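Translate structure to sequence.
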C-alpha cells in the first residue's frame, strides 16, 4: 500500500507531456481498445471536452473528475457522465497532459467512440500520436532494462510496422491496429519509462524502407518476434508477403539471451477431438474433412539441425485432405501462443492426442529476433547495425 501511494505520487510528478498532439493525421494511430461494448468507465485527471466526431463541434466540457464516470448507450446515443451526446462518433479530448483512463488503464491522446450500425454498442478507439503510441509499445514488447540499442531497434521496427499496417488496412475501417500481439502489444502509459522514452526520442520519426517489387521505395511490414531459435524465416513462407528485408537470416544471437526454457520448449499435447473442433470453427472449409485424422508436414524450411514447419497437410476421416499454414494451425490450436510457442517442432500422434515435440524458439520467426537484437546490443552493436542485420537491404529514413 505504501509502495502504491509513494509510487502514485512519484508517477504524477513525472508525467510527461504527450508529444505530437498537433501532428498531421497520417502520423496518428487508431488503436481499437474495446470492441462492441455497451459501457465503460472513464477517468480524466484534467478536464476534458466532448466533441461530435462528425460535425467536430464541442458538445460539452467536463472539469476534473475525481472518480471514474460512466459511458454507456441510451436510445442509440452515447451518454457520457449522464450527458447525452449527439453523433455516431464521439471524441473525448482531455486537456494537457492529454491522458485519460479507460477501464482502469491510462492512455495518451484522445478517445473516440464509434457507435455500431444497430446503435446498441460502441467501439472505443484510442487516437494517439505515433511517438506517444510507441512509448506504450516498446516497453510492452521488450523489457525496458534491456540495452538501449535493442530498445531503439524495437522502436524503429514498431514505428515502421504500425505505419505500414495503417496505410495498408486502416483505410477501410475505423481503426488501424489492435493493442495485442495480433499486431503489436500496446499498454499505454503503464508501459512507459525513462528508458523507453529515451529509445523513442533517440529514433524520433525513423522508419525502415526498402525497394519494392514495382521499383518504388517504401515501408514494409517490419515484423519481429521474440526468439527465432537460430534462423529467422522468410515472410513469404509464413505470411505470404514478399519483401527483400524479410527473406530470413541466420541468428546466432538469441541462444545466449533467451532463457533455456524459451529457447527450447517442452512437449505439449492437445486432445484430438478438441483440435478438430477448433480447426473447423476457425476454418469452415475444413468441415468436409470430418475428423482430422492426421497432420503431416507439407513444407518446411531446413536449417542447421532444425526445421521450421511452414505448411501442414490435414487428412480427414471422410478421405479428403487440405492444407493450412503451420502458423495458422499453431495459433488456432493455441491462440495464446504460449504452449505451442513456434512451428519449429514436430507433430506426432499419441493415442487420442496430438503431441508437439522438439520445440524451439518463440513466435513466428519473421523479421527482427527480439532476443537476438538484445544479443547483438550486448556485443556493442548499434540499433542501426541490428536493424540492417535483421532487415537486410533496408535503409533507415526520417519521416519528420
Ligand atoms: Zn534469434
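Result:
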Amino acid at each position: 500500500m505504501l509502495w502504491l501511494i509513494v509510487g502514485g505520487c512519484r508517477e504524477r510528478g513525472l508525467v510527461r507531456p504527450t508529444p505530437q498532439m498537433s501532428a498531421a493525421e497520417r502520423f496518428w494511430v487508431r488503436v481499437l481498445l474495446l470492441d462492441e461494448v455497451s459501457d465503460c468507465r472513464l477517468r480524466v485527471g484534467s478536464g476534458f471536452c466532448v466533441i461530435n466526431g462528425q460535425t467536430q463541434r464541442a458538445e460539452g466540457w467536463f472539469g476534473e473528475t475525481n472518480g471514474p464516470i460512466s459511458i454507456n448507450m441510451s436510445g442509440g446515443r452515447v451518454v457520457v457522465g449522464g450527458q447525452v451526446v449527439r453523433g455516431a462518433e464521439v471524441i473525448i479530448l482531455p486537456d494537457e497532459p492529454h491522458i485519460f483512463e479507460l477501464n482502469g488503464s491510462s492512455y495518451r491522446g484522445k478517445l473516440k467512440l464509434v457507435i455500431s450500425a444497430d446503435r446498441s454498442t460502441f467501439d472505443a478507439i484510442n487516437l494517439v500520436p505515433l511517438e506517444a503510441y510507441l512509448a506504450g509499445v516498446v516497453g510492452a514488447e521488450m523489457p525496458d532494462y534491456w540495452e538501449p540499442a535493442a530498445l531503439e531497434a524495437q522502436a524503429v521496427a514498431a514505428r515502421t510496422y504500425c505505419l505500414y499496417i495503417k496505410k495498408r488496412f486502416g483505410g477501410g475501417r475505423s481503426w488501424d491496429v489492435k493493442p495485442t500481439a495480433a499486431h503489436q502489444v500496446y499498454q499505454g502509459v503503464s508501459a512507459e519509462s525513462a528508458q523507453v522514452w529515451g529509445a523513442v526520442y533517440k529514433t524520433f520519426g525513423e522508419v525502415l524502407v526498402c525497394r519494392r517489387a514495382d521499383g518504388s521505395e517504401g515501408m514494409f511490414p517490419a515484423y519481429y518476434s521474440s526468439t527465432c531459435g537460430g534462423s529467422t524465416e522468410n515472410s513469404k513462407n509464413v505470411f505470404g508477403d514478399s519483401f527483400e528485408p524479410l527473406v530470413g537470416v541466420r541468428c546466432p544471437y538469441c541462444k545466449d539471451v533467451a532463457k533455456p526454457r524459451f529457447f527450447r520448449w517442452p512437449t505439449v499435447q492437445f486432445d484430438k477431438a478438441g483440435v478438430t473442433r477448433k480447426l473447423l470453427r476457425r476454418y469452415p472449409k475444413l468441415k468436409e474433412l470430418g475428423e482430422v485424422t492426421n497432420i503431416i508436414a507439407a513444407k518446411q524450411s531446413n536449417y542447421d539441425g532444425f526445421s521450421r514447419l511452414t505448411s501442414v497437410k490435414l487428412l480427414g476421416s471422410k478421405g479428403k485432405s487440405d492444407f493450412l499454414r503451420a502458423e495458422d494451425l499453431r495459433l488456432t490450436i493455441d491462440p495464446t501462443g504460449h504452449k505451442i510457442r513456434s512451428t519449429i517442432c514436430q507433430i506426432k500422434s499419441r493415442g487420442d492426442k496430438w503431441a508437439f515435440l522438439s520445440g524451439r524458439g518463440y513466435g513466428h520467426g519473421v523479421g527482427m529476433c527480439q532476443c537476438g537484437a538484445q544479443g547483438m546490443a550486448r556485443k556493442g552493436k548499434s540499433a542501426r547495425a541490428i536493424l540492417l542485420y535483421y532487415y537486410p537491404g533496408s535503409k533507415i529514413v526520417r519521416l519528420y
